[in-house]
Predict the structure.
Amino acid sequence: MWQLTWSIAMYRGSSPLALSPESPEARPSLTGRDIRGMRCRSIADPFLLQRDGCWHLFAEAVDADSGRGEIVFATSPDAQVWTYGGVALREPLHLSYPLVIASGRDVFLVPETRQAGAVRLYQAESFPDRWRLAGTLLEGQFADATIAPHGGRWWLFAQRGLDELRLFGADAIAGPWVEHPRSPIRTGNRRITRPAGRVVTFDGRLIRFAQDAWPNYGSRVRAIEIDRLTPTEYAEHEVPESPILSATHRGWKALGMHHVDAHEVAPGSWIAAVDGATIAL
């Protein structure tokens, strides 16, 4: 019986909408074989944070024995060569999509905890490997909650069901979170309703990324520009460059790419952690 196996690679480009590997034959930066202490079959959903002169990568690693996702981390001085660090967060439920956010000296983690019926907020006690539960942001079955600051407020995008994107706002990252009057902002379209990474600001534009789940789960990543985001208004459109990542029908990303976390490291120079899927027998 076959199953998808996910791996992580680093891409570069002149913008978050123009990313590519350094060479067509580039290998993944991290695979399940790099994860020690568990029999790991996949590593996916990478998020980056640069702190104290070092890059940190957080990702979902699936334990083949328990079937549960755990949040693991790796470090790198240059975002090219990574050293596996260990498990950052383990719970008695499936964890994935470890969005990591710095706010001042505080660092927060918002992994997907849909099996708990809630969106949870964790705060670093000792970064990067010790976290405490700081609160519950939302109650409900939400996937891939993505938090971003904009216009002096915090915003939270999350998928509910298979094809509904909901939007919430708050004055502080811990909440209370209130649903936007235009929410759900997208319904009935599995190609653009599930978040696929951090919301980024590029050239004065606000860009969100979406997993394209048609015809298959995680087939590509689409880019959506947010035209208006205020406490009362919301508008967006898909950019001409979309999709920005797609399955290549060969190699480690033959059957899917469904995540991107892009960061500007110098004017006109971006790096991104992405993932891709192929078949494991």
